[in-house]
Here is the input.
Amino acid sequence: MHSNSDSRTRRHRGFFASLGISLLVAVTAGIWGRWDKPFSSPPPALAQGSGYALRLYGNGFAAPGRDRVLIPIDAPPRPVDVGATDFTIEFWLKALPSENGGVARCNEKDGWIDGNIIFDRDIDGSGDYGDLGISLGNGRVVFGVSVGAAGTSVCSSQSVADGQWHHIAAGRTVNGMMQLFVDGALQATAQGAAGNASYRDGRTPTKPNDPFIVLGAEKHDIGAAYLSFSGWIDELRISAAARYTAAFTRPTAPFMTDSQTAGLYHFDEGPAGACTGSVFDTSGATNDPSHGVCAYGGSPAGPIYDADTPFSSPLPTNTWTPVPPTATNTSLPPTSTGTATPVPPTATNTPLPPTSTGTATPVPPTATNTPLPPTSTGTATPVPPTATGSPTVTPTPAVTPTPDDTAPTETAMPTGQGTLIATPTATAALPPCPTATPTPEPDSLPGVRPTHAPQGSDAQLLYLPLIQQEALCTNAAQ
Here is the structure.
């Protein structure tokens, strides 16, 4: 809403003087004629596919009435005529800095007018309720609402003219509280004018495009100073409620309608190329749907349907890029390689070499050194120890010397030999030794068999071999 003292009002008066109202009415009449049965009957099936956005070229004043989308809000009243209660306007936007040179006037009434206009729901002149709009100034989003002579504009702190898709949400409560979000982050908040900012139902328009929302251009084409938007818009949703009051996660899929939705435009009618027909409101809101229409034209001509959308390649790429680095570096290389390497060394080195080698080495020395050296050769293998003591003492029954044997008693056989000779004694089937009853000699040791027979006797010749071979016979008397 603008008073006669507004610069915008002064500009458009000069414009009408030079251009003539007849030309503007003629241009608008062609568009107005489209608001007929297509908007009072269910929309036809979407043509040739889906997944499009609208590309506008910012022709504006250079192509009056063209390169824009018009959405009716009155005659009859439409649900998208918001402002009497809380409301939210949200959409996806993509812009290039080289194509938008508008200026942002923040914290001023009608400050959004000097930017590249994206959403225009203005009222020409003074009077009646209020008006509102959204534009791009200095790369920042500007959102303004006015009620009567009062109003203000808020600006995002973040520039969105960077060639990337951004989600924009502008909300206002009926008590005048305004909030602006970019990609779910709260960018600005302000206390504006309270009250009804809608378009009054049944109002007699002073300009043909008054009872419309216009996307992508200043709706009245007042002059070259009022710039149009050049870029992409998609997924426009107008809600009769303040949807966001704090930071939120930006959408990752096209909007779905709900009870708060007053208008929903996917811009998926297609096909790719010139948009020359209707754009459908899929909100399902009560009363007549608020279908719109493309006014195609200008140079380059717009708007056009473009397959570049927030949910095609750009948005998934932005979301996905930070995830792989973290997942790849943390999970894959370090964890899998680091775990596999330490396991083999621990299992191989600890159990196998130390335990098996250390145990095997000490056992042989102990078994070999202990039994053999201490017991000496006489004990021979560990088997005879028990038999060694008995045979050594038991040999008493051996052959006794004859009475005439006066030879000096000789030393008894070494214990070792006695042991070897006595071993066969355990054999049960040995032949008997020759019987003889020698007279014991005084110097004979009890239990020791003498080794000499009388000199020159046959017994001497036969006895020594028998002593040496004693293990081959036994005394029957034993």
